[in-house]
Please model this.
Amino acid sequence: MTRRASIILRTRPLAGALLTAAAVLIGWQQLSAQPIAGHNSDAPVDYAADRIELQGRQDRVVLSGNVDIRQDKLRLRADRTNVSFTNAGSLKIQQITATGGVLVTRGDEVAHGDIAIYDFDRRIITMVGNASLKRGGDTLYGKRFVIDLNSGVSSADGRVSGTFSVPDRN
Model:
C-alpha cells in the first residue's frame, strides 16, 4: 500500500509569495506561515532573456536563455519560458510555463523545480520535479507544490520531507 503525504501551509501577513517555512514527514499537518495572498498578480511583468520569439498565431511568446521575469516582489528565473496570452485589444498574460533550472524567489524565500506554471487567471503557481522550498533554516522537498495566491494556502504532494528550524527558547 502506498502512502501519500501532503502538507498545507497557511500564510501570515508580510511574507513569502512562494515559499513558506515548514516541513512534514508523515500525514497532514496545518501550520502558520507567510501569506502569499499578499502578492499583486496584477502588477506589470518585466522580462529579460537572450532570445525572444513572438508566435502570434499561437498567442504565445517564447523567452529562452537566462530568462529573468519579475512581477512585484516575485522573481522567476529559468532556461526557457512560454508565455501564453490573449490579444483582445491589449495583451493579457494567461499563463507562464518555465522549464530548466527554475528558480523563484521573493525576499529570503527560494523555490527550485524543474518546471513552474503560473496561471494568471486562477492565480495559482505550480512547481513540479525536484521541487524544494527554503526559507531561513526551514526546508521542504516534494514532487509537486501548489501555491494559491488567492487564499495564501500552499500544498505539497507526493513524498514530502524537510527540516524545521527550532527557535531559541531563551
